[in-house]
Amino acid sequence: MMQSSGVVNTLLIAVSGCSCSGKSTVVKELASFNAHSLMVHQDDYYKPAAPQTADGMENWDAIEALDTVKLLQDVKALIQDPSKSCPACLSANDNEENNQHIVYIEGTMVLDIGKLSELLHTKIFITLSYDECLRRRRQRWKDYIDPPGFFDGCVWPMYMKRETTLLKDLTVKVIDGHQTKEEIVKTFLDVNK
Known about the structure:
5 strands, disordered N terminus, five-stranded parallel beta sheet
């Protein structure tokens, strides 16, 4: 257990970007480098129902589909005392003091949450082309097919809206999602030296 006299530093890193751009995969890889890493996944914060488009389609890519209040509360709790949720800290073998905790927050919309964005130390946005995003979505979910019009009516327009905004934000580091997982991780590590 971590001793109470130890000073805990918490680094917050958000990884956002296009659907199927490798956000979760990259975060898992990055977290494996530090035993004191924690992950917050946007997918755990969806509300039971999403807002509807003018066509009556549920838009799960709209920020209103997320319980952003709960997500922000959970992140603030991790900032306050990351050791309560850190498996390495809870381990009887962890006697290190002054552990630096890294909290990775990943999802397509995490950089849309203004109050969360203000807390972040690093903001990553992974880009992807239309064709590659569509190809990966079809490959990833072999048993699931987007409802007709969902990709072109919700997924892609919401991504393009985010991309347009975030590419103007100089605090956001942009990474090309067409690279391999290893290349993306290396790029991430290079921009965070």
